[in-house]
From TrEMBL:
Gene3D superfamilies membership: Vaccinia Virus protein VP39
Keywords linked to the UniProt accession: Methyltransferase, Transferase
Stretches assigned to coiled coil: none
Taxonomic classification: Bacteria, Bacillati, Actinomycetota, Actinomycetes, Mycobacteriales
Protein name as it appears in the record: Methyltransferase domain-containing protein
Pfam families: Methyltransf_11
Transmembrane segments: none
Methyltransferase type domain span: 93-188
GO BP terms in the entry: methylation
Record's keyword annotation contains Methyltransferase: yes
Length: 250
């Protein structure tokens, strides 16, 4: 439980006042209230059945789709860990961690006092993360990505994979991610990409709109990170996804 104690020490005092430690193994910082109106995609992410099959069913579908387009298939988690330079005692924040597939993978690459916080608003996803990806260096947190419960410049690495296109205010989430990134720290984002073809882009946007998913263009995410003062902004486009990395000046 040493990692949980370290994480609790990083949470702002005002957020800790309403916290509790769930019997299922995550720290709960969100008070119950009237359910917010959600899109079809957002409702899916908070569904117990979807959470149970997310990695087992969805990931193979994505891999198969990439292969059909003639794209090389790489281990996304290894690529992300390399981009974040995970190899020691870093403090890592995995925003919208889902079932913890990246969170657990990252935790295995840390040492000493290093740990990773997997944060999500979906209780079914967090329960699946605790069940499927428990690690001594991983702590799961029920909290709002729009109001991260940490002080400025807290984490050495901050990431968000396959979720930015699901939130109502993606730029607000990016702003919070940059806020908690420490000097010299690295950030990584994987999200949707609308392609250059007008017909393909419009087809993707139509399908995405019906499901409540945002399709990003080529410039929005890299331009936001650059405008926030981050350096070495790099973007890799692959099929209908984009992988963007950057670092904060040391």
């Amino acid at each position: 439980m040493w990692s949980t104690a370290l994480v609790r020490g990083l949470i702002r005092e005002d957020a800790l006042r309403s916290s509790s430690y769930s019997d299922t193994g995550y720290i709960d910082l969100l008070e119950s209230g009237p359910p917010a109106r959600r899109t079809l995609a957002q409702r899916a992410m908070t569904n117990n059945r979807v959470a149970a099959v997310y990695e087992r069913l969805w990931r193979p579908i994505v891999v198969a789709a990439l292969s059909l387009h003639g794209l090389s298939v790489v281990d996304e988690r290894a690529r992300a860990a390399a981009a974040l330079h995970l190899d020691g005692e870093q403090r890592v924040l995995d925003v919208a961690c889902g079932p913890g597939n990246f969170t657990g993978f990252f935790a295995d690459r840390l040492a000493g006092d290093g740990f990773v916080v997997g944060l999500d608003t979906s209780l079914p996803m967090l329960e699946r993360a605790v069940h499927d990806n428990p690690r001594p260096r991983a702590v799961y947190l029920h909290a709002d990505a729009l109001k991260l419960p940490f002080d400025d410049r807290t984490f050495d690495a901050v990431c968000c994979f396959a979720a930015l296109h699901l939130v109502a205010e993606p730029c607000a989430v990016l702003r919070e991610m940059v806020r908690v990134l420490a000097p010299g720290g690295r950030i990584a984002v994987m999200t949707s990409y609308g392609r250059e073809s007008f017909l393909v882009r419009k087809g993707l946007e139509l399908g995405a709109t019906l499901c409540g998913v945002r399709v990003f263009d080529r410039t929005t995410v890299p331009a936001f990170l650059a405008a926030a003062g981050l350096l070495d902004v790099d973007q890799q486009l692959r099929g209908i996804s984009q992988f963007v990395t950057a670092r904060r000046h040391g």
